[in-house]
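If I may wish for something, please walk me through the protein I am sending here so I can picture the backbone:
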Amino acid sequence: MLSICLLGACARPSAQVQPSPSPLATPSPTPSPIPIASPAPVTTSQSHVFVIVMENHSYGRALTGSYTAALAQKYSVATDYHAVGSPSLPNYLALTSGSTWGIADDGYHRLPAGGIGAQLTSAGIMWRAYMEGMTSGCFNNTYPYALKHNPFAYYGGSCPSQVVNFSHFAADMRTEVPRFVWITPGLCHDGHDCSTATADRWLSQTVPLILAADAWKNNGLLLITWDEGEDSANHVLTLVIQPNPVERASAHAYNHYSMLATIEDRLGLARLGRAANASPMTDLVSNPGP
């Protein structure tokens, strides 16, 4: 644990906060330019990409979770990775469309159709986004689901059929694994409303299901990040987990646009919005194989 703490300042866990309700779906257009896709890179890989987004922990605080620290010790860490805004929603939009759309709140804003989900569908690439606690489509749910943590519902104002309840996740990992997997835990398991230990325990139960899948073992890539930090620095932990790590740690400056660029390059998609000019995490991610 000492060696991990040296990579970034370990902070003391802060007090547990009270549950916060999911925002109501009250569509309001946001006047912001539509992110333009840059040309797609050529790739021959059939790599699978998995993304887990946790909540509201600084770099050091996230590493106080014993399982999280063990992953950081065994795999790869981006030590100078930063979120791009606050509160949560702008970061989720940046991760999936390359833009915050000028949004600085967690309310519902109906955005133009698009984002990485639309890219994947258009390219014929199987994908699924697993939302813990989502039982009645994207818009009418109760705690622990949070609409603000489901970015796919904002593009075009609809709920894609690929966005499903997290209850499907375990069975899918044992059968036909989508090439792109997005996971949003509920407001407790993501660490937003519950302790770091609770969120860490959830990761210890979820991540092994991915690592046991052939889809990960054969050139797969798992990315775990935290949507935002706890101060103005917005310094968050990001783990890069693949079968054969190429680097244990990178001090290059990365952010959520870097992650989107990395994902899109890996899947052979054009880069959206600010991902077009972002630096992908090439020093941490092995080149796609044939």
